[in-house]
Design brief:
Strand order of the largest sheet: 1-2-3-7-6-5-4
Shape: globular
Low-confidence stretches: 15-21
Order of helices and strands: HEEEHEEEEH
Distance between the termini: 46 Å
Structural class: alpha+beta
Oligomer: single chain
Length: 141
């Protein structure tokens, strides 16, 4: 019985350590003025999140237009979006970290198109601080 409990405990420990070691945005340097939340960076109305590319795209196709979402690709590496259902707007990019692709989302609640330029500025600052280069959206896998 003790042996089974030990095995079960080891399995839980392995799952816990793998979850803790997952890459998140707060593992990196934040743009000036942003504060660390457990999973995001926050500054006034703006937030920044980072998710693995495969899990992100499985849930929503953020890089294409549809009835509820307008997307505009900027320089092939950024996607400005306005989502009427989620009432959220911002700019996305894809970066590569240790061979894995991640989507970084700089966003705010609402549809004030003038604020998306700030989202782009924050992504560019995040990239500069952390020495990331966004990859072409059409080259993501």
């Amino acid at each position: 019985m003790k042996f089974k409990m030990l095995i079960v405990s080891l399995i839980f420990l392995i799952f816990f350590l793998s979850a803790v070691s997952a890459v998140g945005i707060t593992d990196y340097n934040a743009p000036i003025g942003f504060e660390r939340d457990p999973l995001t960076f926050i500054k006034d109305d703006f937030q920044m999140e980072m998710d693995s590319y495969s899990s992100f795209v499985d849930h929503d196709d953020y890089f294409e237009n549809n009835d509820d979402r307008q997307v505009k690709i900027i320089n092939g590496t950024y996607a400005e979006y306005f989502d009427s259902v989620k009432e959220k707007s911002g700019v996305l990019e894809i970066i590569k970290v240790d061979g894995d692709q991640y989507v970084v989302d700089s966003f705010f609640d609402g549809d004030d198109k003038s604020k998306t330029k700030d989202c782009l500025k924050y992504l560019e600052e995040f990239n500069k601080l952390n020495k990331f280069n966004p990859i072409k959206i059409d080259k993501a896998s």
